[in-house]
Each structure stands twice: as structure tokens, then as C-alpha cells.
């Protein structure tokens, strides 16, 4: 059924092009090369999430009430401006400006495309397939990331310049702008054709946001999704300096060891991120098979995430002391990516079941806002911990957050919080 639906292939193309983020394997290295500390990088991430937090819900309601396609076109335009800023910016003010443009893109994108997918399934009478279909389209996003990782390594290797990698991401984003602009008008949603009123939009936004927050089932999913997103977004980047430091001390007499640091990072991180994103693609496509485990009261996924943090902490602490210690930490990062991409489609499936379909993009924007708050808090904390204790401290941070959220999940499911 999926393969015969042409629109789902366009949704998949959207994800594939969106994830041509050639800068991703090198983003933290670019910022470190521009003279930022881990704490300053954390503050930059936090600033992005503050902006997303302030703009996310209004952007979601604007998408629902005034056009989801227009919102996606606007988001890609903001991304393009951001990429140009990161490529040429040097000082902190310029980097904060670039991050603001990126936040505008995130705000107008977050939740909007997923709402269009779910709306398409409702129109086709295929609501029961949400987890399968979203996992399928997400797997293509991760396949795009895998391809992007190999291309990014090749581009950095050929140019010898980390900052210019942002410029190569602009053409795929322009192509995606054309893709979403020509989606069928029916995907605008159930209320997207109404005339726009600022007063009505604000009143509706406040009413529906409060309804989401007061709903015990939605609120619980918001919290779990927020912690999961914050762990993936703030922690995964620490794999870059970990692996680069390891590669610097390996094969010094071989081809990799003879390369300059920039080209060595291109080879090591390009291949590594390809592998991570290939695993993420498989995990997303297979997510629906784990639905029964995720819904149990015993929070097994959170225990697994805590174990991933333990691997990161142990491997990082033993790096340079015990052979193969870096591999232990890398397994922890791999496990974190695997869990996040299995878990995410399942949480969104539950979220859509509990929410009002008329405000699909808005509800998903509220969910994204919770995630932004979590990243806003966790990013500088993780950065400060990394500056003080190294990457091993980041692993311990993941363990603590996972165990605390798992305990919350256990109590919530036991109290029957799935009801409104």
C-alpha cells in the first residue's frame, strides 16, 4: 500500500532532501574551530531553542490557519539564510544571528510536515497506519542523512575547508522548497482555507495550547518526547571530538595518520555518520514492531537509554588508558541513536491519537516546544559538564536524565494518565 502511494514518495523525498545537512558531522568541530568553548556552544544551542520555543507554537497555528505549504517554503528560505551565515560568520554575534535564522526555519517546519502526512492518511482512511507510514518516511530522512554523511566527508576532503560545507546544503534546500510548494492543496488541513485574523489566531492558539497542556496523556508524552529529543540533540554531537581525538592517536604511520586534521576528520566522521544514519533509517522503518514494548508500564526504553549513557561515560573515561575504550563509548552513542529513532515514531503515533486533528501542526508544535525547553536547559548543562569532566560527564548526565524520566513514566502510567 505504501509503495503505490505516490504522495508518500514525495513526503519521503522531502525528508531525503531536508537531511542533506552536510555540516552535521562537523558542526561542533566548526564551532570549536571558530574559538568557542563547549559552554559557549551549549549556550548557542540554548539560544536556538529559546527562539524555537517562542516562535514554535505561533508558527504551528499560522500553518494550520493560513497555509502549511507556505510555512514550509518560509522555513527553507530561513534555513538558506542560516547556512550562508554559518559559512561566512566568525564572531559570536554573527553566529547567534545565523542560529536565529536556523531557529526560524525550525519553528515553521516543526510539526507542519508531520501534520500533512497524518492528514493525508485521514483523508485516505488509513489512520491505523500512522506509525508504519511515519516510520517509512522517517527512514528515508535517515537514508538522506546517511548519503549526506558520505558526501559531506568527500566535500570536506576535497575542499579542505569545514566552514564551506554549509554552502553545499543550499541547493537541496532550494529543491525541497519547490517540492513542498507544489503539494496538493488538500494537505493544507481542515481549517487552512479560512481567512486569517490575528485576533482569532491568538485566541485559538491560547485555547488549544492550554487544552494540550491540561490533557494528562498529552502532557506525559510531551515530557517523554522532550527528554528524548534533548538527549539526542545535545549529546550526539560530542561523538565528533571523541572520535577525532581517537583518530589522531591511531594509525599514525598509515594513510589516515598522514592526513591533515581537517581531511582526517572528513574520512573518520563521514564514514561514522553514514553508519549511524543507516542504523537510524533501519530503526525508523522498524519502529512499529516495538509498539508493545513502549506501551508497557515498566519503562524499558528509559533503562536502555541509561545504559547507553553508561557506555558513553565508561568508554570516554577509559579512553587513552584501555585499548578499545573509544569503541565502548561509540557503542553508547550508537545505542542512543537507535533508541531515539525507534521511539520517536511511536510517541508521535500516540500523540496524534490523543490530539484534535484540526490542529495537528499546532499540537505537534507544542510537543516541539517542550523539546525546545528541554534542549534549552540541557545544552548548556551538558556543555558545562563536558568542560569540567570531559565527555564521560556527558554520559553520566544522560544516565541521570534517563533514570529520572523513566521513574516519572512509571508513575504516570500507573496512575492511568492516558486519560484526559
Task: Write a structural description.
- The chain is mainly alpha-helical.
- The protein has a single domain (6-414), classed as Up-down Bundle (Growth Hormone, Chain: A).
- It is built from 19 helices and no strands.
- It has helices at 6-18, 27-33, 38-66, 68-88, 92-109, 112-123, 130-159, 165-168, 170-181, 198-214, 216-235, 239-248, 255-258, 261-285, 291-295, 300-318, 325-354, 360-389, 391-414.
- α11 packs antiparallel against α17 and α16 runs antiparallel to α17.
- The longest helix has 30 residues, at 130-159.
- 53% of the residues are buried.
- The model has no long low-confidence stretch (mean pLDDT 79).
Topology (SSEs and partners):
Elements: H1 6-18, H2 27-33, H3 38-66, H4 68-88, H5 92-109, H6 112-123, H7 130-159, H8 165-168, H9 170-181, H10 198-214, H11 216-235, H12 239-248, H13 255-258, H14 261-285, H15 291-295, H16 300-318, H17 325-354, H18 360-389, H19 391-414
Helix pairs in contact: 1-7, 1-9, 3-4, 3-5, 3-10, 3-18, 4-5, 4-9, 6-18, 7-14, 7-17, 11-17, 11-18, 11-19, 12-14, 12-17, 14-17, 16-17, 16-19, 18-19
Amino acid at each position: 500500500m505504501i509503495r503505490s502511494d505516490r504522495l508518500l514518495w514525495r513526503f519521503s523525498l522531502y525528508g531525503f532532501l531536508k537531511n542533506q545537512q552536510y555540516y552535521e558531522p562537523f558542526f561542533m568541530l566548526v564551532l570549536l574551530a571558530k574559538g568557542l568553548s563547549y559552554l559557549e556552544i551549549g549556550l548557542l544551542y540554548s539560544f536556538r531553542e529559546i527562539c524555537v520555543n517562542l516562535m514554535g507554537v505561533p508558527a504551528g497555528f499560522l500553518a494550520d490557519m493560513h497555509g502549511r505549504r507556505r510555512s514550509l517554503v518560509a522555513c527553507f528560505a530561513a534555513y538558506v539564510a542560516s547556512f550562508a551565515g554559518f559559512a561566512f560568520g566568525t564572531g559570536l554575534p554573527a553566529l547567534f544571528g545565523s542560529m536565529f535564522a536556523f531557529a526560524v526555519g525550525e519553528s515553521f517546519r516543526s510539526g507542519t510536515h508531520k501534520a500533512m502526512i497524518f492528514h493525508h492518511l485521514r483523508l485516505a482512511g488509513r489512520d491505523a497506519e500512522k506509525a508504519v507510514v511515519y516510520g517509512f518516511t522517517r527512514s528515508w530522512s535517515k537514508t538522506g542523512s546517511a548519503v549526506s554523511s558520505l558526501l559531506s566527508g568527500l566535500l570536506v576532503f576535497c575542499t579542505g575547508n569545514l566552514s564551506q560545507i554549509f554552502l553545499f546544503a543550499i541547493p537541496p534546500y532550494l529543491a525541497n522548497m519547490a517540492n513542498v510548494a507544489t503539494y496538493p492543496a488538500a494537505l493544507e488541513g481542515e481549517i487552512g482555507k479560512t481567512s486569517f485574523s490575528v485576533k482569532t489566531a491568538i485566541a485559538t492558539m491560547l485555547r488549544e495550547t492550554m487544552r494540550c497542556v491540561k490533557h494528562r496523556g498529552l502532557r506525559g508524552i510531551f515530557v517523554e518526547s522532550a527528554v528524548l529529543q534533548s538527549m539526542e540533540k545535545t549529546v550526539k554531537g560530542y561523538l565528533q571530538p571523541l572520535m577525532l581525538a581517537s583518530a589522531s592517536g591511531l594509525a599514525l604511520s598509515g594513510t589516515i595518520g598522514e592526513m591533515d586534521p581537517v581531511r582526517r576528520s572528513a574520512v573518520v566522521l563521514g564514514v561514522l555518520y553514514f553508519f549511524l544514519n543507516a542504523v537510524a533509517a533501519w530503526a525508523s522503518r522498524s519502529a512499529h514492531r516495538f509498539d508493545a514494548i513502549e506501551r508497557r508500564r515498566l519503562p524499558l526504553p528509559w533503562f536502555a537509554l541509561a545504559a547507553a549513557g553508561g557506555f558513553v561515560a565508561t568508554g570516554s573515561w577509559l579512553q587513552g588508558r584501555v585499548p578499545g575504550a573509544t569503541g565502548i563509548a561509540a557503542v553508547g552513542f550508537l545505542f542512543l541513536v537507535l533508541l531515539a529513532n525507534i521511539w520517536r515514531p511511536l510517541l508521535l503515533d500516540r500523540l496524534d491519537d490523543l490530539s484534535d486533528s484540526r490542529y495537528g501542526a499546532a499540537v505537534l508544535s507544542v510537543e516541539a516546544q517542550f523539546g525546545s525547553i528541554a534542549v534549552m536547559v540541557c545544552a548548556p548543562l551538558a556543555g558545562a559538564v563536558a568542560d569540567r569532566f570531559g565527555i564521560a560527564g556527558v554520559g553520566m548526565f544522560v544516565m541521570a536524565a534517563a533514570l529520572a524520566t523513566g521513574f516519572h513514566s512509571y508513575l504516570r502510567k500507573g496512575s492511568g494518565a492516558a486519560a484526559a
